[in-house]
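BUG: 3D viewer hangs when loading the predicted structure for this chain

Environment: internal workstation, default settings.
Expected: structure renders.
Actual: progress bar stalls at 90%.

Input used:
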Amino acid sequence: MAAPAKSASRPITERIGRFLKEVRAELRKVVWPNRKELTTYTIVVIVTVAIVSVFISIVDIGFGQLLYLLRRLRG
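C-alpha cells produced before the viewer hung:
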C-alpha cells in the first residue's frame, strides 16, 4: 500500500489556510487592465462573437436550403 502524502498529515484547516495565502500571493502578481483597456477588450469580444454568429447563421441557412433542394429533387 502506498504511503500517504506529507500534506495529508497536516490538518485540513492548515492546508486550506496555506492554499488561500498562495492564491492571494498569486493574485497580487496579476496585472489588471485599466478601464479603457477593459472597454476595448469587451468591444472586441462582442464584435467577434457577432461576426462568428452571423457566419454560422449564414452557413446553417445555406446548408438548410441545400438539403431542402436535394429533398425536392429526390421526391
